[in-house]
User: What shape does this take?
Amino acid sequence: MQAIRFNKVCFSYETEKPDAADAPFAENSSIEEGFALREVDFSVGEGEFVAVLGHNGSGKSTLARLIDGLLTPTGGEITVLGLDASEPKNLFEIRRQVGIVFQNPDNQTVASIVEDDVAFGPENIGVDREEIGDRITFALNAVGMSAYRHSTPTRLSGGQKQRIAIAGALALKPKILILDESTAMLDPLGRKEVMDVVLRLNKEEKMTVLLITHFPEEAMLADRAIVMHAGEIVLQGEPKAVLSDEARLREYSLALPHAYQLCRALSAGGLTVEDCMDEEALADEIVRKLSASSGAQLEIPAMEKPLIPAKDGGQAVIAENVSHVYNPKSPFETYALNGATLTVDSGAFFGIIGYTGSGKSTFVQHLNALLKLPTAEKHYRPKRKKGEEVPVRLTVAGYDLTDKKTDFRSLRKNVGMVFQYPEYQLFAETVFDDVAFGLRNFSEHSLSREETEQAVREALEMVGLQYTAVKDRSPFELSGGQKRRVAIAGVLVSRPQILVLDEPAAGLDPQGKAEIMQLLHKVHSEWCKTVIVVSHDMDEISEHCTEAAAFGGGRVLAQGTPQEVFSSMEQVREMGLDTPFTAKLTFALRRRGLEIASDLTRADLVKAILLYAKKNGAGIGCNGGGIHG
Assistant: This one.
């Protein structure tokens, strides 16, 4: 039986405004053209696991909302578990059997206590009270949030909120589970834990799963993959076949899995290897090919790295023993930071990583005093205590953030902050006024119209927007990608020395992520001396950052170059983190006797492997896992 069937389904937002999450970032959004879906035909069998990919604005989220009856099709027919989704009388039963988790957990949090939030769905469909308790326990265990059962959702981190949202859907024990980019805000191990639960429910309990994702590695776990573009299904089939078509994926603003990208780069250099998703399989393939390769035939690629400004010898951030307690002296008291210590060199492109709830966002909010140390608060009075207190130091861009006499207004001009989903920071009637707000707010003297126009023009052009084309438009009428750029321009306009970004690429499709990172490197080389990026994407950190720090339990557990931070796979996993694919492959090769040194960027690792092959030539043999030249 078909769990879901679409027959020539169309949907238009001409009479309804789309949710911001539905098409948040695409420049080529089909919604702007009138139709989010165009005569879509597809079906999902009972117990099938289907992954849906596509650029932002391709229609993926619209598809999900139509299945659950949150939207009504403009044309065509939708059947869910044999029920006509266009019939209002069927909606309760459909929603009882379909669990959906959205990308932004704040959009679906309804209760003030975690267990009440998870229980909300089962209570609404009439589940017995005793069974509700069992379902809460099952769901929270499944997402690793049992310890937060009696916590308040609003006091949790973004990733923790997302886990609670997923638990709320699991507690329904639906026949169909729809995950709409619901792992986007989770750390790598958190994503794996959720996907393990989803796979188990799919295989053991025959739950139908529709996974909307930008992670090709997640899509590879499905039975079938579908690619959407401009409201239409343009590719579908077995995931390995769909996700190996590089030309078609690039055409639709998608990208190969990280492992496939590395395989193709090696093959382009003359060491032809088969596509492998697993680092162990790829390591075996490399060893096998090395034994037969001719070094003379290999072409060593030139390194393609962004220009990183030289360090000036100074330090942009000095933090020693920084702590922060949320809701002190209350039942909800939580130590988000507990003695965090690190330094950021001036001129660095610095990455901050850590599992969900490790203290990353709390720390960066201290950097421009959105959160202040107790000694910097106006009401602070030194306390006399026996014994020595632990010295606390926080200096950012030369400002002492432990001193309440510090000029915090001047600090914020020099330390720009871009939050998760920066487009939510927009508020003014026009793009010009939105970008100019920060400039006017931080200016020490009254600016002329000409000075303001010049500064706003330069900021908008820096983020890749044409000044005359957008300055008079409402920021809320722009595409999602344009909104994100306007929000960043509003921070850049004051020319900060340090730019801090909390998950700047969250929710973006692969092309959007690449564009944002290119933009940040341009900003780094031309405008902001130091850039600090918080990210859950380990590959993003290894590819783009000169230095990194790993947070855990409110402390800094490791700091150094990405190569140094990811040098021990066991240690990184003990931190609750994962390693980039390049590090996994390096370790796998090492276990086979091959020592390949690289900075863990894909380009450098490919170059190192090819140089090794060129030096050793053909005749390398593998015997019992060892390499013999």
Summary: Residues 188-204 form the longest helix (17 residues). DSSP finds 23 helices and 22 strands in the chain. The CA atoms of residues 53 and 232 lie 12 Å apart. Confidence is low (pLDDT under 50) at residues 16-33, 619-629.
